[in-house]
Amino acid sequence: MKSFRTILIIFGVAVLAVAPMLIVDSYKARKSQQENLRMMAVKLVVEQKLEAYHQANGHYPDSIAVLSFTNSPEEIGMLPDLKKIRYRRTESDYAVGWDGVYGDWSR
Fold first, then answer.
1. For an engineered disulfide with 88, which of 32, 46, 61, 95 has Cβ 3.0 to 4.6 Å away?
2. DSSP secondary structure letter of residue 102
3. Model pTM greater than 0.85?
4. Closest to 74 measured CA to CA, from 41, 96, 100, 37
């Protein structure tokens, strides 16, 4: 009976030691997912602006710096995330991505 109690105590200590790590990992995963969703929304807005630019000018811009953004609350909120966006004009199209938790997109 004494050895069973010892095993339960050891198990309880192990659970108490591991539980905070699981909570932190869950929090980090949720934050990463939120970041990914936010950046996907920013990417979509940039792609829409690129298509509008293409319609107006017949080609894609060399840089997203020439794109115009409105003063809407949504776009104002996206301005800091635009610094994370990576844009590359290709011969006939473009590539848009961002650096983030999954590595450097520009490679």
1. 95
2. T
3. no
4. 41
Q: How many CA atoms lie within 13 A of 6 on its CB side?
A: 3
Beta bridge partners of 95: 88
For the purposes of burial, counting CB atoms within 10 Å of the CB of 46, is it exposed (0-12), middle (13-18) or buried (19 or more)? buried
Q: Of 50, 56, 52, 59, whose CA–CA distance to 85 is shortest?
A: 50
DSSP letters along 10-63, please? HHHHHHHHHHHHHHHHHHHHHHHHHHHHHHHHHHHHHHHHHHHHHHHHSS--S-
Which residue from 41, 62, 40 is spatially nearest to 53, judged by alpha carbons? 62
